[in-house]
Amino acid sequence: MLSTSEKTVVFIDGANLYATARGLDFDIDYKKLLALFREKSNLVRAYYYTVLIEDQEYSPIRPLVDWLDYNGYTLVTKPAKDFTDSSGRRRIRNSIDVDLAVDMLEIAERVDHIVLFSGDSGYRRLIEAVQRRGARVTVISTTAGNAPSVADELRRQADHFVDVRELRNEIARARSGQPARQDDDYDDEYDYDGPDDDDDFEDDDYEDDKHAVAAGD
Fold it and tell me: Strand, helix or coil at 137?
């Protein structure tokens, strides 16, 4: 998948990767992930995209975002937008799709290999456009039925598909009896454990994946 002779850029759809790893029952160690690409490719940049809830007194994702920003990742964040649904509940949503697409198209002609951590079907046309610009594209997600799976059309469009389960031993965070932490440097991403938190937070860039058809397995 990787070559040290290829200029490589990594694009991480944060919400999508988090949900996929959670469905596979492991946590991403972003220090290990970055080290893997630095060792096995000519890594130019690693982008991480996420939506932030800015009006919270404490945001559980903020420690992770700050850690990534100081440790080799290029952070692209967007404030969440809230609204009240028909039942009167506060809902929060936004999407980073456009930001990711613009950045990928701008850099495509200057690199050899683009790696996308996402299974979102909405990125298929983006990958097609990037390939026309001469870059090879690898998609990393999963075909496991117990986790948000890669959309079939995205997998078919990519030059190469890697199931994230194949990388688990290299990028998984070690667990212990203590609450999961990343070398005590940052807390769990999207640690929404309060009542109804999962229902109240919606990330449009990930919604398509919840309905994507698993290919293969």
Answer: strand
What single-letter DSSP state applies at residue 216? Answer: -
For 113-170, the pLDDT digits (tens) are 999 999 999 999 999 999 999 999 999 999 997 777 899 999 999 999 999 999 999 9
Q: How many CA atoms lie within 13 A of 91 on its CB side?
A: 13
Structure tokens at 126: 């983006």
Helix (H) or strand (E) holding 40: helix 30-40
Give me 67's structure tokens: 């850690």
Q: Is 69 helix (H, G, I), strand (E, B) or coil?
A: helix
Find out whether 201 and 80 touch, Cβ atoms under 8 Å. Answer: yes
Give the span between the Cα atoms of 114 and 186, in whole angstroms: 27
Rg of the chain over CA atoms, in angstroms? 17
What integer pLDDT is reported at residue 176 of this predicted model?
Answer: 61
Q: Which amino acid does the sequence have at 25?
A: D
* Token output for 121: 């079907």
